[in-house]
Amino acid sequence: MAEHEIEPIRGLPGQLPPGERILWQGSPEWRTLARTAFHTRGIAAYFAILTGVALVTGAGAFGVVATGASGIVAVALLNLLAWATARGAVYTLTDRRVVLRIGVALPKCINLPLASIGSVDLAMRPGGNGDVALAVEGAQALGYAALWPHARAWHVARPQPMLRSIAQADRVGAMIARHCLAAQPGGSFSPAAAATTGDLPPKAIAA
């Protein structure tokens, strides 16, 4: 039995403390996750080129078929991994913290107190979903490999947890930012237009 199958509350490691409320929960959309985190379109294009090269160079029917079949299998496996990753992930916002329950074989929960989040960054994609990256201040024991693919790309030295491929990411990002500012009264909030890009860097919506 998987650990998350016996959760007292979906996506959380235990019961909420008295007074804490869940404000939002969501999970990645697996098709978008497959394209953006597992780069299925790029892999498909790569194998299509290899198949074309094999065809042009006279590699023979077996070589062409084997190359094309390898590409189909690779993309299918990546899509399966994206589906399993999205199925095993639950992002939760409460009025005190952000919780990421992630992992396929070894699920784990990462608790991010709102007071520890220094900025909330947003990248929107066509179709309405997007990514919300959270920059954590102070000492942190977050490993990039342990977070991936729920981590902002290329931020390896100081990993930034990221809510990937979520619906209405602009609304969720603004909600997280507002509650972070409530936990850090000295901050400032300035909603930004969403960046319609396939990858980060996102627009900062709180700091």
Structural commentary:
Keywords: Membrane, Transmembrane, Transmembrane helix. The chain has 5 helices and 8 strands; from the N terminus they run βαααβββββαβαβ. It has 207 residues and is of the alpha+beta class. It has 2 domains: 3-12 and 19-27 and 89-206, Pleckstrin-homology domain (PH domain)/Phosphotyrosine-binding domain (PTB) (PH-domain like, Roll); 32-85. The strands form 2 sheets. It has a 4-stranded antiparallel β-sheet with strand order 1-2-3-4. A 4-stranded antiparallel β-sheet has the order 7-6-5-8. A hairpin with a 4-residue loop joins β5 and β6 (129-136). Mean pLDDT is 86; it is low at 189-207.
Helices and strands in order:
Blueprint: E1 22-26, H1 30-36, H2 40-56, H3 60-87, E2 90-94, E3 97-102, E4 108-113, E5 117-124, E6 129-136, H4 144-147, E7 162-167, H5 169-183, E8 203-206
Antiparallel strand pairs: 1-2, 2-3, 3-4, 5-6, 5-8, 6-7
Helix pairs in contact: 1-3, 2-3
